[in-house]
What we know:
alpha/beta, 5 helices
Amino acid sequence: xxxxxxxxxxxxxxxxxxxxxxxxxxxxxxxxxxxxxxxxxxxxxxxxxxxxxxxxxxxxxxxxxxxxxxxxxxxxxxxxxxxxxxxxxxxxxxxxxxxxxxxxxxxxxxxxxxxxxxxxxxxxxx
Length: 126
């Protein structure tokens, strides 16, 4: 995704998902363009709160400054590299971050962390 993509995290379950799909279908039928966005749906708002801990939100904010190695993020956040790696893996599993590997001459390769969107909207419906 490009740097102008907006991300949206929702916890509105199946009903909200189908409402959004219906709205997208109406827009497409009318020939209207769809805005580029990232939507992650959680069945249970408690899952969203578990995934988006304060430390993980800090990680997302730090990653928005541009692609960085996990070790750089850990240093900037003053956290253990293994803990940041676990958080990156979880956020990547839910589609909020993406990773890739770059060559590190003489040392193999290292993991680069990037955001999937330039902005995230966090919405929970209870």
